[in-house]
């Protein structure tokens, strides 16, 4: 899969949700994890059984004004609003940072304004923050991962998709150093 992604939460307060979400981010291949205005700094969450802190950078920013993302990284808010894009209709950016709201709350209006996109999971009501994050990451991997298309009938594909590497293409001819 090309590109990268990060996952963050604004105003997170529960250690269990932190551990679950950072472990899931690690499992799905996130490049980093962040919190904004978390009620506390999460050092060793008990629910992170993969020890993600050894493998995934964690940035605990005190406020949304401190948020620094890599060049060209697009901020995607996950929020249940009327004008948000439904997740099944959303094309994920190649370079993205997904930000979720806190438990029993929403992304602040100023954070929503910082987001290039607001996406919602089409549910009847809000989900647990760790569950919502897992759904977003699964959708990203499923839609960008280069998997075989789903078959028309029930069941899995008959053949697995194998990527074939071709010869390199150069805009102005093959460089002398690569000529045989």
TrEMBL record:
A Pfam family per the record: SpoU_methylase
Every tRNA/rRNA methyltransferase SpoU type domain range: 7-138
Basic and acidic residues bias (residue ranges): 151-162
One annotated GO biological process: methylation
Database matches in Gene3D superfamilies: 3.40.1280.10
InterPro entries: Alpha/beta_knot_MTases, rRNA_Methyltransferase, SpoU_MeTrfase, tRNA_m1G_MTases_N
Superkingdom as given in the UniProt entry: Bacteria
GO molecular function annotation: RNA binding; RNA methyltransferase activity
Keywords annotated in UniProt: Methyltransferase, Transferase
Region (Disordered): 151-180
PANTHER family given in the database record: OBP33PEP LIKE PROTEIN (PTHR43191:SF7), RRNA METHYLTRANSFERASE 3 (PTHR43191)
Name the UniProt record assigns to this protein: SpoU rRNA Methylase family protein
Lineage of origin: Bacteria, Pseudomonadati, Pseudomonadota, Alphaproteobacteria, Hyphomicrobiales
């Amino acid at each position: 899969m090309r590109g990268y992604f990060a996952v963050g939460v604004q105003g997170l307060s529960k250690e269990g949700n932190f551990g679950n979400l950072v472990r899931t981010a690690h499992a799905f291949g996130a490049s980093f994890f962040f919190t904004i205005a978390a009620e506390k700094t999460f050092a060793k969450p008990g629910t992170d059984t993969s020890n993600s802190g050894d493998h995934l950078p964690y940035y605990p920013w005190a406020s949304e004004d401190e948020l620094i993302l890599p060049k060209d990284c697009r901020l995607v808010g996950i929020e249940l609003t009327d004008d948000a894009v439904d997740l099944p209709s959303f094309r994920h950016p190649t370079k993205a940072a997904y930000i979720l709201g806190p438990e029993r709350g929403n992304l602040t209006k100023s954070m929503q304004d910082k987001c290039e996109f607001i996406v919602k999971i089409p549910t009847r009501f809000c989900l647990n923050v760790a569950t919502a994050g897992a759904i977003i990451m699964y959708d990203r991997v499923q839609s960008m991962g280069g998997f075989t298309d789903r078959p028309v009938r029930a069941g899995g594909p008959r053949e697995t998709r194998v990527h074939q590497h071709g010869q390199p293409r150069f805009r102005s001819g093959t460089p002398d150093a690569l000529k045989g």
